[in-house]
Design a protein that fits this description.
This is Pilus assembly protein PilM. InterPro entries: ATPase_NBD (IPR043129), FtsA/MreB (IPR050696), PilM (IPR005883), SHS2_FtsA (IPR003494). It comes from Microbacterium helvum. It is a single chain. Helix content is 29%, strand content 30%. It is an alpha/beta fold. Strand 12 and strand 13 form a beta hairpin. Helix 4 crosses helix 8. The longest helix is centred in the C-terminal third of the chain and has 18 residues.
């Protein structure tokens, strides 16, 4: 592996990547995003390998990434993340035993799943943690597509884990915080302490982000030429620059979600409120100090007012400039918010 690593995400709307330097003080040195044609991919699933490969080639060329080594961040409604307790044993023995232990919990046969277990605590001979299961065919398809453009997948990481990792330095070590990434079709919620994920939920919710609107326009105008969004700017970005998230802390007065809130936004606020309330209801749960909000959906009209009305915990919008220093001109709009997750995925290799 070289001196840099690229965090990479494949979504329904685009392929997005961020290159960071490896070392004690990582920096964002390049980033880019290339829109995908309709039906080329779903969240973390490749449907048209040829179209995605073309976009990846444009991405690496347009952003001028130095490295071909990448960490793939995955986040899909088809990925299972749940709390799980099992007998404590050596990691290698647990990996062998896990498929037999969790078969009844999986939506597919264990032989068709990629499994991981993230241990959190141990009580006697029982260890508790987070079980992660993804359909192996989907992961293999993305890795195969990367190989078409000679990009090497060094690791596959749950994007929610990257979110917990990247916001850790914005908190006190003993604070429990939630990080919410509002994507185009999937919202991720991770509750963590000191960068360690304690609870994860992946919510399938469609939000009318600029990327979704652009994608819809492309579907109705096939001849539209798509250009890569390379380091130094965001072509056609919608929304004002995210700026410093610390300045976007929401007010503390809460009430009912406004009656004129768009249906998708109202559903998002209600489901996030329910998710956080579920975590808080457990006897072992610490109260949340803050809720960090990121992802392109954070600047969709009505989203932050609806969340502010629905959630009692202080909210703070976080953009990529809040979580890593940069040696490249900063991104703006949705890209600045979406890159928070992408950088978090890449940082996993720095901390290994």
């Amino acid at each position: 592996m070289g001196k840099t690593i690229v965090g990479l995400e494949v979504t329904e709307e685009s392929v997005r990547a961020a290159e960071i330097s490896l070392g004690r003080k990582p920096q964002l040195i390049a980033y880019g995003e290339v829109p995908l044609p309709a039906d080329a991919a779903k969240d973390s699933e490749v449907l048209d390998a040829g179209a995605v490969a073309v976009a990846l080639r444009q991405l690496w060329t347009g952003a001028r990434f130095k490295s071909k080594d990448a960490v793939l961040g995955v986040a899909s409604r088809r990925i299972l993340v749940r709390e799980y307790t099992t007998q404590a044993m050596r990691p290698d023995l647990l990996r062998e035993a896990l498929p037999y232990q969790v078969q009844d919990l999986l939506p597919v046969p264990a032989s068709q799943a990629v499994l991981d277990f993230f241990p959190l605590s141990q009580d006697g001979d029982q260890v508790s943690g987070l079980l992660v299961a993804a359909v192996s065919e989907n992961i293999e398809q993305i890795i195969s597509t990367l190989s078409k453009v000679k990009v090497r997948a060094q690791a596959v990481d749950l994007t929610a884990f990257g979110l917990a990792r990247v916001t850790a330095h914005l908190t006190q070590p003993d604070e429990a915080v939630a990080t919410v990434h509002i994507g185009d079709h999937t919202t991720q919620v991770v509750i963590s302490r000191g960068g360690v994920p304690l609870f994860v939920r992946i919510l399938p919710i469609d939000v009318a982000t600029a990327a979704v609107r652009r994608h819809s326009a492309e579907a109705s105008t096939p001849e539209l030429e798509l250009a890569a969004v390379a380091s130094g700017g965001v072509a056609g970005a919608v929304g004002s620059p995210a700026g410093n998230g610390a300045g976007l802390t929401q007010g503390r007065t809460r009430g009912a979600i406004r009656a004129n809130t768009p249906p998708g936004v109202a559903d998002l606020a209600a489901r996030l409120r329910s998710t956080l309330a579920f975590f808080a209801s457990r006897s072992t749960s610490a109260p949340l100090a803050r809720v960090f909000v990121t992802g392109g959906g954070a600047i969709v009209d009505g989203v932050m007012p609806a969340l502010s009305a629905a959630i009692d915990t202080p909210l703070q919008v976080v953009s990529v400039g809040d979580v890593i220093s940069m040696s490249t001109p900063p991104p703006a709009g949705e890209v600045a918010l979406n890159l928070v997750a992408t950088v978090g995925v890449a940082l996993g290799q720095v901390q290994r």
